[in-house]
Automatic annotation (TrEMBL):
SUPFAM superfamilies: FAD-linked reductases, C-terminal domain, FAD/NAD(P)-binding domain. Belongs to the flavin monoamine oxidase family. This is FAD-dependent oxidoreductase. It comes from Cryobacterium adonitolivorans. Pfam families: Amino_oxidase.
Amino acid sequence: MKRLERDVVIVGAGATGLTAATQLRNAGHSVIVLEARDRVGGRLWTNHIEGQMLEIGGQWVSPDQTALLDTLDALGLKTYERFRDGESVYIGRDGVAKRFTGDIFPASPRTKSEIERLIGILDELVAQIDPAAPWEHPDAAAFDHISFRAWLEDQSDDEEARENIALFIADAMLTKPAHAFSLLQALLMAASAGSFSHLVDADFILDKRVIGGLQQVPLKLAAQLDSGDVCLNQPVRRIQWSAASLPADAVEGEPVEVTTDDLVVTARRVIVAVPPNLCNRIEYTPNLPRLRQQGLQHQSLGLVIKVHATYETPFWREDGLSATAFSPFQLVHEAYDNTNHGETRGTLVGFVSDEKADAVFGLSATERKERILQSLAAYYGPKALEPVVYYESDWAAEEWTQGAYAASFDLGGLTRYGAMQLEPVGPIRFGSSDLAAEGYQHVDGAIRVGRRLAAETIDSLASEQQLLRPITTAS
């Protein structure tokens, strides 16, 4: 077993962990990043499938994501706009594809009116929510004890309006059924993006992509560290910070020991930068406080299949379509033009989430592909049935992710446990995009959390050093 010493150990080589690592390194602290996977990036992964570059994980950049935009600029990464010229497609319960332009899909005047009314109500509520502390809203407990679906049913008797409003939070973001999370969790999701209106505006929330893929952010951050400071294939098994059990001269201040199968790293601080659902994969000595353990059990990731279908040409453009398509009544609830910068081929990306994903995962891979392509063809016509490359991103099957896109609380969990998840436990701090205020579940949020954790750790180490400094008296 190899032994190392560092000022700070970071668990997880995603955008949060690597942002924190580079900032700590720039402040003069020694760091090591321990990553369970065989690559850096976490939920960012750009891969080549049958010769086609696909962004398996997160990929989009919106105008409000200033932390990400600043990072892209600092790293010299360029962006390009998602193709959006032409008409969009909506499919109602009748299964008929309807083409349209503008923000509101073709529906009856009453349904359109109800959608606009519900968006207005949600925007008003979201404006009252502090994304850094949603539990402080005067009605937080009441909002946290009613499911988003139940609240929508209280607000409107128009089923089509309700299903479409739910789609933008449940299917598109939290990837859970709307009965599985609270109104408060929904408001936090929207508040993290600036408004509910932003979530329903695909041209805003899915504005740009990074040339070459968004995984370049963690790759370039990792490149700023020394080669020995990022260790792959090193799942952390134990974090031990009981001072009585460690050598007294290990490091200055309160020592902490982080163990993998191959390494033991003694440090002064630890940042656990993994999703909350993975935190309990680590043994802690002493145990985490009982409410912290309980809180982790009340957070879970959703379920989504990200579908990539590449064609010899972007045929939908010839048909006058932008490829923006959605329907709460279709297996693929939303889809977009995902053609890479400079390519002549065309790529569609679509999403199958929560209970619909449950259903198709019960099929064979061949049957699942047929069902998904049939859903795409309902939007774009029979040409969608014949991609030259087809791939399904299944993050729930990833050992070190187990879902998508981010963890959210069950009913009542946000007010009960939300505030404490931001607090350190001894020398350990926790954080990821799952705990972000602005940019929650996005790379922007991951960067913001990484910066916060680094700043808190730097301040903590400075305070410790101040306490250890010898006291001198004037003679």
